[in-house]
Amino acid sequence: MNKKTVKDMDLKGKKVLVRCDFNVPMDENQKITDNTRIVAALPTIQYLLENDCAIILCSHLGRPKGEFKSEYSLKPVAEELAKLLGKEVIMAKDVIGEDAKSKASNLKNGQIMLIENVRFHKEETENDQEFAKELAKMAEIYVNDAFGAAHRAHSSTAGVAEFLPAVSGFLIEKELKFLGKAISNPERPFVAILGGAKVSDKIGVIDSLLEKVDTLIIGGGMAYTFFKAQGYEVGNSICELDKLELATNLMKKAEEKGVKLILPMDTKIGKEYKADTESKTVKYNEIPEGWEGFDIGEESIKLFIEELKKAKTVVWNGPLGLFEFDQFAIGTNEIAKALAKMDCTTIIGGGDSAAAVKKAGLEDKMTHISTGGGASLEFLEGKALPGIECLLNK
User: Fold this and answer.
1) Of the residues 198, 358, 359, 383, which is catalytic?
2) pLDDT, one tens digit for every residue, the chain (394 residues)
3) Catalytic residue among 110, 235, 374, 382
4) 136 CB neighbour count, 10 Å cutoff
5) 382 in active site
6) How far apart are CA 235 and CA 290, in angstroms?
């Protein structure tokens, strides 16, 4: 929590290496379909420009598995960034090769360059010391502003911090402020909503949150594992049979801790996994054979909203239904709308829940939307994030 930021350093006229999270979605023509992550990096970049720095940006994009693949080039990102800043962004053809090094050494104060996708080198994900050292040689200070990659110990997220003074940018500072307060000192009642498909993805988070929250609401695909653990039939719904005992233990733990654990009362079911499948709503313990649960029903929506109205802090991670299909996005959308109207701290934990809130056009109505799905989950779980641990303490 107590990490130095760009504001704690004398940056005037320095060469600064900034790790951003430019892992943006693109269509088949290399057109960026959502520039949120690029926009999120602007405050730190602007601040460095105001301090007359020479700025070297780096990021990963997709999973090119250690080799150059043109469809994973950051060139479209450089173009989008130049448009947003109204300023040239010099693009290097490589990462630590001749082109990047010569452009970095000739970079003047007030100029910006972007080096190629760091994952074009397999050394990046191996957190290779030599690779990190080569990256570090280009600059005098390192700024990590890639919260979405902070849970990975890679060369550009953690390794470079061994060779340069390392601080956080404004994006990471903001993430730590909101997520950190929710975990260490939340205003109560503190309610967490967990959705998504699998209990196994969220075991650590459920376990950790049961120590902290007043109420835990569970929806999405993982609710069916909890139903099955209570002996109810779930039809063809997603269900982890090897996690039934675990679900039972988590319910027991909630009871012991005095945490209110709320599961859906009803569920919207469909015949098959497609947008226009036949559907109906049934009670949670009456799912017929051959049907599959895809969303929470109206009773559950009412129940969840009643509970949320009492909250002073809400953390939400994971959609409550198959929100990609309109007829099964109702639960997720209604909860998003309810949170948008509430007078409390609302923190959306990245990934699919952030996508659902954006799809509903409600992102400005939330206190904070995390830019990192995996990172925010690990943070809520109480795990140390390598990309943050490596930064200088205040």
Assistant:
1) 198
2) 689 999 999 999 999 999 999 999 999 999 999 898 999 999 999 999 999 999 999 999 999 999 999 999 999 999 999 999 999 999 999 999 999 999 999 999 999 999 999 999 999 999 999 999 999 999 999 999 999 999 999 999 999 999 999 999 999 999 999 998 888 889 999 999 999 988 888 888 999 999 999 999 999 999 999 999 999 999 999 999 999 999 999 999 999 999 999 999 999 999 999 999 999 999 999 999 999 999 999 999 999 999 999 999 999 999 999 998 999 999 999 999 999 999 999 999 877 888 888 888 899 999 999 988 888 888 888 889 999 999 999 9
3) 374
4) 21
5) no
6) 6
CA distances from 64 to 42, 95, 119, 302 (A): 26, 14, 6, 45
Whether cis (ω within 30° of 0) applies to the bond prior to 189 is yes
Among residues 37, 228, 243, 268, the one annotated as catalytic is: 37
CA separation for the pair 356, 332 (Å, rounded): 7
What whole-number distance in Å separates Cα of residue 185 and Cα of residue 140? 36
Catalytic (active site) residue 37? yes
Catalytic residue (one of 351, 372, 373, 387): 351
Verify whether residue 62 is a known catalytic residue.
no
Q: Is 63 a catalytic residue?
A: no
190: β partners: 313
